[in-house]
Amino acid sequence: MNTNSRFPLVALSAPLLLTGLAAPAMAQSDPRISGFFSLGALSTPDYQGSSDRSVGPLVAARLGYHNYYIETATLSAGIALRANISPWSGIEFGPVLGQRRGRSDVENKRVKLLGDIDDSTEAGAFLRLPFRDVLTSRDEAAIEVQYHHDVSSTSSGNLLFFGGSYRFDPTDRLRLRAIALATYATDRYNQTFFGVTQAGATASGLPEYKASGGIRDVGLTLTANYTISGGWGVNGVVQFRRLMGDAADSPIVSREGDENQISFGLGLSYRF
């Protein structure tokens, strides 16, 4: 297991909906400043499609006032930050910025011979439509779409995340959330992370492979936060992603890795 930290602590971007740890607060009758932060450990695949694992920090934070908020979280692919600039309670939208992990210093000997992929900086936007009091007075459902473009030219590709979430607070102390999403990746993105060039095939012994665009993965994320006392609590997250299409068919995944990608983490949190 690779225990090096692979989550650069710079603000902004990664898969949709963050992790759900920085979950939106329920509607408040009196606007006030509220917030949340969490620190812990997160175990993820060593790189996209890997069957090896690495451990890094779990970081999630949120600061909000009325309908506006800014939130950030480490994810299986890097770290993300986004801000809601909508003044309306029935719709959320705003900018997204972040850093996505590349592929370097990996344990797999053949994949290592393919060469390093630099970390990438992504910028984009999100749109989220929340629906409160769906089944009870303590829940919220939402649908969301989020777009990322690589502005660092690592892949010069695009990602589109779309899905939905459901949050339920069984008690004042316990908060639960489920997030289902799918990711569409363009040709350039998939070729960068899942393709094998002729030079890479010669060096590694893997077959040459050209990856086209399409649905990269589908996934489910479950989060829980339990308040112990005075705003302090513990939180956990489990994320499952299933690689699909050309991503799953890549020899990096089918021969040397795993199409089933699981991340999990545990942290200490404070809510105010």
Describe this structure in words.
The protein is mainly beta and 272 residues long. The chain is built from 5 helices and 12 strands. Strands 1-2-3-4-5-6-7-8-9-10-11-12 form a 12-stranded antiparallel barrel. A hairpin with a 5-residue loop joins strand 8 and strand 9. The two termini are 36 Å apart. The relative contact order is 0.19. The N terminus is likely disordered.
Chain-wise SSE layout:
Layout: E1 33-45, E2 53-65, E3 68-75, E4 78-84, E5 92-100, H1 109-112, E6 120-132, E7 139-150, E8 158-168, E9 174-185, H2 187-194, H3 198-204, E10 214-229, E11 232-243, H4 245-249, H5 251-254, E12 260-271
Antiparallel strand pairs: 1-2, 1-12, 2-3, 3-4, 4-5, 5-6, 6-7, 7-8, 8-9, 9-10, 10-11, 11-12
Largest sheet: spatial strand order: 1-2-3-4-5-6-7-8-9-10-11-12
Mean pLDDT across the residues is 90
**Helix/sheet category:** mainly beta
* N-to-C span: 36 Å
| Percentage of residues assigned to helices | 10-25%
As residue ranges, the low-confidence spans are 1-17
**Could you give a short account of the major beta sheet?**
12 strands, antiparallel, barrel
